[in-house]
Every structure is written in C-alpha cells, then in structure tokens.
Amino acid sequence: MIQVGIIGATGYAGGELVRLLYGHKEAEIKWYGSRSYVDQKYASVYQNMFQIVEDVCRDDNLKQLAKEVDVIFTATPQGFLAGVLDEEILSNTKVIDLSADFRIKDVATYEKWYGIEHKSPQFIPEAVYGLCERNREAIKQARLVANPGCYPTCSITSIFPLAAEGLIDMNTLIIDAKSGTSGAGRSAKVANLYCEVNENIKAYGVASHRHTPEIEEQLSYAAGCPVVLNFTPHLVPMNRGILVTAYASLKEVKKPDGSLGLPDAAMIRAAYDKYYQDEKFVRVLPEGVCPETKWVEGSNFVDVNVKVDPRTKRVIMMGAMDNLVKGAAGQAVQNMNLMFGLEESEGLDLVPMFP
Amino acid sequence: MIQVGIIGATGYAGGELVRLLYGHKEAEIKWYGSRSYVDQKYASVYQNMFQIVEDVCRDDNLKQLAKEVDVIFTATPQGFLAGVLDEEILSNTKVIDLSADFRIKDVATYEKWYGIEHKSPQFIPEAVYGLCERNREAIKQARLVANPGCYPTCSITSIFPLAAEGLIDMNTLIIDAKSGTSGAGRSAKVANLYCEVNENIKAYGVASHRHTPEIEEQLSYAAGCPVVLNFTPHLVPMNRGILVTAYASLKEVKKPDGSLGLPDAAMIRAAYDKYYQDEKFVRVLPEGVCPETKWVEGSNFVDVNVKVDPRTKRVIMMGAMDNLVKGAAGQAVQNMNLMFGLEESEGLDLVPMFP
Amino acid sequence: MIQVGIIGATGYAGGELVRLLYGHKEAEIKWYGSRSYVDQKYASVYQNMFQIVEDVCRDDNLKQLAKEVDVIFTATPQGFLAGVLDEEILSNTKVIDLSADFRIKDVATYEKWYGIEHKSPQFIPEAVYGLCERNREAIKQARLVANPGCYPTCSITSIFPLAAEGLIDMNTLIIDAKSGTSGAGRSAKVANLYCEVNENIKAYGVASHRHTPEIEEQLSYAAGCPVVLNFTPHLVPMNRGILVTAYASLKEVKKPDGSLGLPDAAMIRAAYDKYYQDEKFVRVLPEGVCPETKWVEGSNFVDVNVKVDPRTKRVIMMGAMDNLVKGAAGQAVQNMNLMFGLEESEGLDLVPMFP
Amino acid sequence: MIQVGIIGATGYAGGELVRLLYGHKEAEIKWYGSRSYVDQKYASVYQNMFQIVEDVCRDDNLKQLAKEVDVIFTATPQGFLAGVLDEEILSNTKVIDLSADFRIKDVATYEKWYGIEHKSPQFIPEAVYGLCERNREAIKQARLVANPGCYPTCSITSIFPLAAEGLIDMNTLIIDAKSGTSGAGRSAKVANLYCEVNENIKAYGVASHRHTPEIEEQLSYAAGCPVVLNFTPHLVPMNRGILVTAYASLKEVKKPDGSLGLPDAAMIRAAYDKYYQDEKFVRVLPEGVCPETKWVEGSNFVDVNVKVDPRTKRVIMMGAMDNLVKGAAGQAVQNMNLMFGLEESEGLDLVPMFP
C-alpha cells in the first residue's frame, strides 16, 4: 500500500485528489495538509467526505512528511515547493507537484511569467513534465514530477499530433480556451463570487496568462522548433471543464501519392489516430462530433476532434477535459501509478457523469 | 455474472443505470432498450459512454428479453410495465420498475392520481416497495420491486424515524421539496429548455403531485395510522439533487424520566440514530449542519438532519439526495444487489463529487 | 430635482439603487458612498455604469451628507445607521434605511435576534415600516423609513390578505422561502463562491433567521394577535429572485350564506383581490398559475397566487419577487416617491426581463 | 404614434421586442403575430407581461398587416419573409427583418450557406444592412432593413476599426465567439434542454456557421478587399450574452513619424476612438479592462476592447453584447428610430442589469 501525503488538501485540486485516491486500491492517504484548517476534521471542510474520511487537517511539514510517506502531492501556490524542496526530501520520497514550480525548464522564463524568484533551480533538470501520454517512460523513473497545468494539458493534447507530424504552421497557432470556475481555486475573492461569475463570460490574462510559456515549451519539443503563440483563457459559468479551440494554418506537405499539397482530412485524422489509438484517456471523437466538457465531467478523459476548413486552409483543433481530473488530480494519480509501476489507470476508471 | 436488460436506457435515469452498472463487478448490461434510438449506438446518444459502451439501442420487447436476462430494469413512462407484465415474464426474470406502476397498494388511489387505468392489478400485492433501508428482507425475496420515486425516497428517509417513534403529530406534516431539472426527464418541452429553467424557481404540482399518495402510504405504515399531508415540489436551476424540508409539530410523549412533555433535541436525534446508525447510505449529519445537495451529488447517500424549534414546538426535518442515484438508478442497483444476495453496496461505493 | 445620497453604494442593493435612480425623472444621485472604494470611479466598481456614471466613490459622512441632499439611502450593515443617527440629521434630510435597524418596534427583540445593542432606540417609534402597499399614508409623512427586508416583503405580501381577513389559523403558519444569491451580498466569503453555490441548494438559518421577528411583527398587526411562525430560507443557484411558499390551515368562518365552514377558493381569492386589485406592483396571477421568479426579474412586481387543498384543509400561499428590486432598491425608491409626493411608480415602470 | 406589427412575437427575440417597445414613447404594438399561440393571450405565453400586455396572439398575415401598421418586425425563420414579401407590402409599410433573408447581397452565397432557395431576390438590392453605427444614413431612407445577426453585430463592431484603417492583415482573421442559449431560440429540442446546456460548453457549426458569410461581406466592405475568415461559435450556459474574441496579425503601416512598422497600442486605440467616440451604444473600455457579457446584459451596448501582443505581433479584439438587445430586438428598434426620424436612442436608454 502506497502511503500518500497531500500538501494543500483543502483546495479544489486537493479535494479531488482525496476523492480519487479513496477509490484507489493501492494507495492510502496518511496526511491531509492544510494551513487554513489545521486540526479541523477534513470532512467538516468537505462535507461530501463525511463518514468517508475521519482524519483531521494537519499543518504542512514537508521534511517530516517525506520520511513518513512514499509520495507527496503538493497542491500549493506557486513558489511553495521550490522554497522548501531539498535533496533530503527527494531521497526520502517521491514528489508530484501540481504547482508550476518545475514545469518550465528555463528559469528566466519561469521568473518572468510568474514574477517570483525560483528558489530551487537545481532540481529543474531532473523534474519530469508529467503529461503521461507524452513522457510515460521518463515519469516511471522520476523522483520529481511536474504535473502539467490544466490549460496546457488540454491544449497540448489537442494540438500535439499535428505539431509533431509537421502538418501545421506553428507560427499561426492560436489557442482560445474556456474554463469552468473551479480552476480559479477556493480562495474568497469578489471576482469569484457566484453573482459575479454566473450569467457571465469574459476573457482574462489576455496575452499574459502564465500557462502560455508552458504550452509553448512543450509544443516546441513536439514541433522541433521554437513556438510562440497566442493563448486566451476565458472564465465560463460552470464548475468544471476546459474546452480548447485552437487554430492553425495547414502546412504544405508531401502527400501519400508523392505530390505536394495541403494535408486533407484523412491525413489529419491519421495523425490523431497514430498518437492516441492506444491511449485510454484520450478519445478521438467520431468525425463531426465536437467535444463537450459535460461528456467528460468527473473523468480522466480528454476528448479531442479536429476540423479542416478548406476555405481558409486552416484546421480547427478542439479538446475537452475536466480541469480537476485530467487537468490536475487525475493526471497526478496517473503519474503516481506510473512512478510506482502500477496499472496506469488504477483509480481512474471513472465514467463521466451526465447530466 | 448477472445479465441485465434496461428498458428506457436513454432517459436520464436509464443513462445513470448504465453509468453505475459499468462499475458493478457482478452485473453486465445485455440490452439497451430505447424506442427513440433503435439501432443507434448507445454512445452516440450519451457521448460520455464513447469507447466505454459499444452496443446499439434496441426496441423494447419485454417477453423476449425476460428469457435472456436475469433482471430487467424498466425506466419507462407510467403505465408501460403494467401494460405488458405477465406471469411468464416474472417466472423468467426479476423486474425492478423505476416507474410508479407498482408503488401504491391501492389501485383506486393509483388510478386517481395518475389518471390512467392500472392494467395489471394482480401483481400489486406481490410487488415490494424498494426502499432498501425499510424493506430489506422483503426485497431479498421479491420477483418484482417497485423502485421508489425520487421525492418519496428523500421525504420518507428524512421523516421516517420521527413518524415511527411517534414523536410528531402526523396531521401537521408539511413537505416542501426542491428538485434539480433532471427529474423532469429528457423529453423536449419548452418548459424544460435552458432559458426557461435557468435563473428561475417555481413550485409546481401544488397539492396535486403524484408522489403525494406514495409518501402518504409509506408514512402511514411508519406511523401506524392514515397520513394526509401537503407535499409541494419546486423546480431548481441545477442538474441533480433533491432537497426536502419537512415540518411537523412535536407530539407530547413520555420522556425518559417518566414525565410527559415534548421530545427534546436529544430524543429526536436518538430516533435518527436508532434507524440509521448502521445504514451506509443514510448519513445523519452533525448537529447544526444542514444537508446540501452538492455534498451528495453523484453518490447513493441521503444526508439528513433535524432541528427542533422550541418557539413553535415544531421540528424541521431536512434531507438531501441525488435524484438520479438514490432517487432512481442507485437505489435500483441497491435493490438488485439485495435480490441477488450480493453485497448491498456493490457498485455504489461512490464518493460525492465536489464541486 | 431630489438630491440623493447613497451610503453603501457598492453593495448589490446599492448598485441596484444606482441603476433604478438613473431612470428616475425627479431624482439625481449626488453622493456615492462606499468605504471600500473611496476615490475610485464608481464605474470601475460596476462596469455596467461605464459612461453612465462618472462620479467617484466617497467615504461615508452622514452628518455632512444630510446637509447636502434631500434624502439618504443607507444600504449598510446592521447597526451602522443606529450608531450614527441623530436629530440633526433627521432635521436636515429624510432617511430610507435598507438595513434592519428600524424595522422592529421592540428593542429587545431586535437585540436578541441581531446580537447587537441598538444605539438609537429613541428613533424607533417614529420610523415607519416601508411596506408601501400597507403603510402608504404613514410613509408619506415619515422622516425615517425602515425599508423592509427582502424575505419579509415577499412573505408578508403573500400572506397578508388571509391574515387580515381571518381566514387562516395563524398558529399553523409555516414559510418556506428560497432566495437567489445576491441576497447574500457582495462580500468575499468561501460560502458564496461560484463553485459552492452552483449546482447546490440548502436551507440556512433554520429556526433562527433574523427576518423571522420582522415577519411575525407585521403579520401580528394584520391578524390582530401575536404570531409565532416557522421561517426557513434556502439558498438557490441563481442571481436574483425570492420565492415564498407558505402553508396554513384554513379557519372556520361564517360563509356568505351564513353557514359556518372553511373558506372556499372563491373566498380566498376574493381576499387577495380586495387588497391588491388596485395595487400596481402586486399581481395576483390567474388561477392555477404558480409564481416564478424569472417572470418578475428586474421589476418591482410581487406575483402572488394561492391554492386551497381540500384534502388537508390547508391553503398554500405563493409569492415571487426580485429581491434587489421590490425586496430592496425598488421598494426604497417607491418609498422615496411616497415621501416626496411623486407618482408612486416613478422610475419603477420596469418590465421584467425574460429570459 | 408609430403603429407596430410583430410577426414572430413569441420567440425570444419577439418577446424582447415587446419588452423594449413597451418603454418606447413613440411606438405601440398593434399586432402580436404568432402561429403557435393564435388566440391565446400574449401574457399567458410570456407571464412577465401579465397586466402589461392585454392583447391576444394572432396568425400572421403580412399583406393585411401592412395596411394597418407603419412598420413590421419579422422575427421569423429563414425564408419566411422572402417567401411572402412583395411590392405592395413595401409600398404600404416599412419592414425590419430580423431573419437573414436580406442580409447577404449575393444570392448564391445566401442559398449555399442557408440551403434554401431565395424567393425574393429582387428586393435584395434595396435592402439596407441595419448595423446602425455603419449605415445610419442609408437606414434613414430604407423601406426594408435587414437587421444584422447577433454574432455579426458583435464581431463586426469589434473588428471594424482595424479593418477599415488597414491595421490588420485580413487574411489572418479568426473569430472565436461565445453565446448564451437564448440565441438558440425557444423551440423544444433535446439539445437545448436545461440539463444538456448547463455545466457544459461546446463549439458548434465549426467552419460552417451561417453567420460566416455575413461577417465576411461586411468586413470586406470595411477592408476594401474580399475577406475569408474562420468563425467558431460556442454555446455557453447562460441566458444572454455574446462574447467575441478575435485575432489578427498586425499589418506594417506608415507610422505617424513617417517610418514603416507595426502599429502600436496607441494607434490601435486611436482607430477605435475614431469610429466610436461619438457612438452612444459602443463603449470602448479603459485599457486593460476586458469586456464581460454581464456588464451589458439587458442593454443595447456593445463593449469593446483590444490588446496588442508584441510577442506574436497580433492584436486581440474583444466585444461583449446582449444577443437579444443589440444583437436582435434592440438594434431593430434602433433601426426603427432611424427610419422614422426619431431620436436614435428612444426606448433604448437601458442600464445593464447587474448582477
């Protein structure tokens, strides 16, 4: 039985970790870390866990915790983990970090977009970017996994096949993303009040959202060249779900018959099948069916689909995902499974809930 | 492995049956009955089941189906099952009926409230009312289970202990209930359009809702006398969830010290503990914590609590439940488990999803 | 032109006052009081007022303000107005208080339910309870109007005719109310976050909500005897709207033909017509049509209806209203119109917005 | 007093026309046309109009109606008006068509995208595209105004200044739009049920939505060259509102100092000010403030803003609008005001409702 500690167990991502790990056959939570609710029963904070979780919340103490558990999930604000991580911790336990601290390889880029100094740059090189479908083998060997951001998970999954196969002009890439409100976290802010979000939609972080460099870095690896793109997130009046609509111009390629030309729908579709036909958690939808966030709610799926527009010679890439599952806690558990040699889908065999 | 047939698999309750049975270790669905979607892939109707369910929808044929499966769930309009049920079917298979056809023992009462003739009154006597916490032993022996209505499940569960213990005046009982919109079903009606329900709340079926006699009958058994009550349902802008707020005057009783008087909070609470302390799916919340539908969403729990008002000498009984789970498909699976001698909670170990 | 000052202009009720007064032909706002946003442009707090309101928010200073304006609206926390009011202020200006400070005639009752000491009990006697349809003449003469609470406005309006006509047993009165979330105000609390309220319904303040004594007092006047009742509010996932569902047993009365008996539907309806047929803002709906909050959204209407249940000998009284308009800012403007001798509906000729 | 007839008065756009015209000082509705509700009281279909509108719904009869009223609004399905319009009608009355029949100048384009034959192509040349801010003078002279589509109104308004000033490369234009559900109309379809839309977001009509050629045509006029673009609408769980997020690459231009280069933020902003500083209904928001649909709800405003991204050399154009007001009924009334020589904002002085 894997012993698990969670730092930040009372945020929405932390709460989702608790929900998912309850159904996990090989793991049990030993530590519910929460600065805000120390010594309170966890189930008094998340009443859904009443009579399911009996533990109380405890202060975070990563050093001590590392000696007691096999893996620590940090669902904490940016900078927290980088501020306390050391070799001793990593020699005692594995760490899956749901914050952004170790997602970006270039320290300067991290510091510019996040506006804070990185306190543990020495661990960046060994940190593995935990997008399971991409880095499966490296994750299995990792001590420190940087669990991807919610927007990046959905964006990269939706775009990767065409980037990797060279079918789109990466200079034309635009990502328009929409997220439910749980992505904004559980802290009390006027902007996140019910009456402010309900019956409303807006863009935010336009041309400045922190997930931009993370997406760019990963797609650069896919495309084999630097990628600079537009990423615009929007806040949608719903609890869960991220929808990505991405646009790019098709690139002239050598077609199967040897001629040069724009890839057709079949080639585009083949690219998605190539990367995802054996992936349990990425579902390439039937032609003409657009991803909807409701169809994946509560599950670890990313639903993707693609549409070629011959009028504009562009392709529209779409992806839908539950931001708290595949976009946070679910992928974190998937990473844990890989790191401990378990069945990758253990605890994640979740059927989306509808309606 | 129990072979299962579902008639009405593409309604919301049918869809929830499919979701729950997918996670059930001892049952598998052999028949997805749906008149509206015959020969279409089930996953094209409920896209959440894409790559999970590969079957197509089939026309309903209860007689044939009864020979092929061990149990049939009928999630069908009122009158359907009563119109086709016969001894041959019941000798071939077990039937769990999610409609109201066999919930009410008095045929005249059924016909008055539902406005249709009952075509199979001969099976009413043997039908067992499938409120598992109340009729567990009878359900185990049943061929035909009448799965309770959503409002009745939540209402009866919330009120039963005080009715059974004689602590409230049954003539004063008022039930004010609130339901999410999935209870209205998946048929296309203007009144159920998004824009009509959203940002809106209303009462409906005032003093005339069909679940009234069902609640009255069951509470009559509990109280040992006829019960006539007010039941007012309301439509709430949310997908899932039923909240019951019930009111009754306290009845003078002999107190533990022998004196006559109104029951105090401790006696009231003791009544709930007596009936529910060993029940997995009924959670008596800590004092002062009001049930909320969100805390049980997606699960088979009913959360209940109670508050004594010394000013008015009344007690307020509250219950929250997911109408599609404990109020429909979950309880149906719980009934199946009982009928087949399985662990009662098999397939129902569902953690509520929050947020 | 009436000069208006608002203290608490950046809460939701304050914001609604600004919206309504913009459309008022005889009033103009001179002072946007807001402690939280001093010196910020009002339209930067409420972006809907961009290019409509150019003023900045100012600190509250009731004494100074009283000299500059003809009327002050205080949309402030409980205790604020009572803490600063004095004779000088009231001799300089009229005050319409949207808080509870002067709604309850009995100081002890106020202090018990609100848990604070009343600092200006000397002004309670002269304060007029501003339920316009009830106290029209007194309001016209008032210097100080206590604008009713949102729940009380809807509850009293729905119940008054039967209480005043002696058609119901006041000892049996139960009020089950449901409110949108704007009633909880604009302060940043976890409980009011989008993800906590959305897809959720709960009761709160059970047997202890502060609006209870206010309703009881007003209905006591109507019935001519002390009234003790149950009032249970619920939080509904919508921005605006209050729905009241109230229950009471019918009282035996002398019928038109001289016999004794329970009032029938016609007598009940006649009571509503008697009090409301000339009231512009109270709409008695056609028989069988239940009030819905969406049908009054944005308007000053209260829609009411009533249903007699011969089975239980009870009557169900229903009312729907926009909590920010008739439940707060709209009624406050209606009071202002009365106090200044204007057309009562000036600025309030608002058509409900649907959908 | 202008006599008004509405064909299609019981759809959502028709209902909004009724709401707005009630507040119009110079117009009164004489005819509430509705095939579905003939002879029923209008207020029984839209209960918000109870005691406000006393008329009944009448069958549509354009020929007869044209003789009785000064202007007809047709809020009807595509093809209806083109199927019945003739010279006699237009000689008797003015027509403001809220359908797409006369929006597109090229018949073949209309027939291809809408999939129906155009029955009155002879009236297309004289029809004026009723985007008031663009075609004010022509509208004043028109007998037949094609009221713009909701998406086109918001898209064109957001993009026009940069297209007209030649500051963006029109070949790179991508419009990602999000709409509330009232845009889908009031017909009973499963896809528009509350439970299907709530907690969900999806794209639809990808690379095939009918508003595409309308946007392209109007922006072609602005840019002075043919425009082919991507337009992707999304369905958002809210009643009202459209948000447009549009992307284009900046075009090298001669700068104020004579040099060649990309336009900077000041030049971009100046373009918006040039076209909108005197427009009452288009609000260019302060720098850094993103448009939100809630801030314009119920009003005739379009809020726009723009952000230059120096990293990608693109500009992000944003617009928010109420789809039923400026996107349908509000603009239709604005057109009527222009056609009859009234104050352009008569009846449209609507303050957005928040929350």
UniProtKB/TrEMBL annotation, chains A, B, C, D:
Catalytic residues, chain numbering: C150
- Main localization of the protein? cytoplasm
Q: Which Pfam families match?
A: Semialdhyde_dh, Semialdhyde_dhC_1
Which biological pathway?
Amino-acid biosynthesis; L-arginine biosynthesis; N(2)-acetyl-L-ornithine from L-glutamate: step 3/4
UniProt-listed Enzyme Commission number(s): 1.2.1.38
Biological process GO annotation list?
L-arginine biosynthetic process
Superkingdom of source: Bacteria
Write down the NCBIfam families for this protein, in alphabetical order.
argC (TIGR01850)
Protein's name in the database: N-acetyl-gamma-glutamyl-phosphate reductase
- Organism (species): Gallintestinimicrobium propionicum
Q: What is the lineage of its organism?
A: Bacteria, Bacillati, Bacillota, Clostridia, Lachnospirales
Protein's gene: argC
